[in-house]
Specification:
The chain is of the alpha+beta class. It contains 8 helices and 18 strands. About 30% of the residues lie in helices and about 25% in strands. An 8-stranded antiparallel beta sheet has the order 2-3-7-8-11-16-17-18. The two termini are about 35 Å apart.
């Protein structure tokens, strides 16, 4: 479902434990939404409970895929994209919830988060064809009339497009919503100690098998290897990361990032390598991580502080090293 070229919502996390064997822990894994998923539950395990857990997870993932996929023509999102009439399109509750939150973050981020940016991302060569070729100025200008969250309106369960060619892509928020949905459904089934991860986006509730908060690692933003830069304790919260270091190409020695600024319809050019956001809802963390990545290390940091966000910024220095800074509220998560 998720186009890898559109957004890097979550990058890589490791859950840390202290004992090699945890007989009370259930661990199940799979693939969906164009990525992988993992669920851990620190409660009594059996073959029956493991299968029941898997059923809950897969049902939730199917729901998100069926409503928000950009690969399935029959998904609700693709039907909305295909609709050319402007009188309105009825959407199911879950899709409406995600679109509503997307518009809230778009407004709060001053347009840095925008689910209508897909055509511009494709124009810069990061779509399914991966042409890796910059567009002309004329091509970019031609997109202006039908790119922008201001051209999208929700009233109840109805969605209105101001331009019939408006397209929506939820790659920067749908995975986070899927994590929330899985965690909520498992909680309803009585599982209070769990960790849910989809494509690097995480929700952690209760305690890990050692009776401690779940400990997660934030990756060093380098194209090669998987190295943990910082460890945080996550207690009944969600975490998502966005970065520019795995999906880019170069033209005349200059990096062209897949992260496109919706305000200019051009790739970001600042030195921010990745942003991690912790929030109560993973969909919110997912969207804000993308917004702050677009805004950069200065504007993004100031807005994160103003919004009271728990955010961790990793900046690429001119010598190839990395520096980092945390918002005031994020520091409370640090060991």
């Amino acid at each position: 479902m998720i186009l890898p070229a559109l957004f890097v919502g979550g990058l890589f996390y490791v859950s840390f434990t202290r004992t090699p064997e945890q007989p009370q822990q259930i661990v199940i894994q799979g693939e969906a939404l164009g990525t992988t998923w993992t669920v851990k539950s620190s409660e009594p395990a059996s073959a029956e409970s493991e299968q029941a857990l898997r059923t809950v997870v897969e049902d939730a993932l199917r729901l998100v895929d069926g409503q928000m996929s950009t690969y399935k023509k029959e998904s609700n999102l693709m039907k909305l994209n295909a609709a050319t009439a402007v009188e309105g399109f009825k959407v199911p509750d879950e899709l409406g919830e995600v679109l509503t939150e997307a518009l809230v973050v778009s407004t709060a981020s001053r347009g840095a988060f925008d689910v209508t940016i897909g055509p511009a991302v494709r124009a810069w060569g990061f779509g399914p064809d991966e042409t890796r070729t910059p567009p002309t100025t004329e091509v970019i200008q031609a997109l202006v009339p039908y790119v922008g969250s201001d051209k999208l309106r929700l009233e109840g369960d109805m969605v209105y497009k101001a331009h019939p060619a408006l397209e929506l892509d939820l790659s920067a928020i749908a995975k986070g919503y899927a994590v929330d949905l899985i965690a909520d459904r498992l909680s309803e089934e009585g599982r209070s100690n769990l960790m849910v991860e989809v494509g690097g986006e995480i929700v952690a509730r209760g305690q890990n098998p050692n009776g401690q908060p779940w400990r997660l690692g934030i990756e060093t933003p380098t194209p090669e290897g998987r190295e943990v830069l910082k460890v945080v304790s996550l207690n009944n919260a969600a975490m998502a990361t966005s970065g520019d270091y795995r999906n880019y190409y170069e033209v005349d020695g200059k990096r062209v990032s897949h992260l496109i600024d919706p305000r200019s319809l051009r790739p970001i050019e600042h030195s921010l390598a990745s942003v991690t956001v912790v929030h109560q809802r993973c969909s919110t963390a997912d969207a804000w991580a993308t917004a702050l990545s677009v805004l950069g290390e200065d504007e993004g940091y100031l807005l994160a502080e103003a919004q009271g966000l728990q955010a961790f910024f990793i900046v690429r220095e001119s010598d190839g090293s990395f520096s980092s800074k945390s918002t005031t509220s994020f520091k409370l998560l640090e060991p």
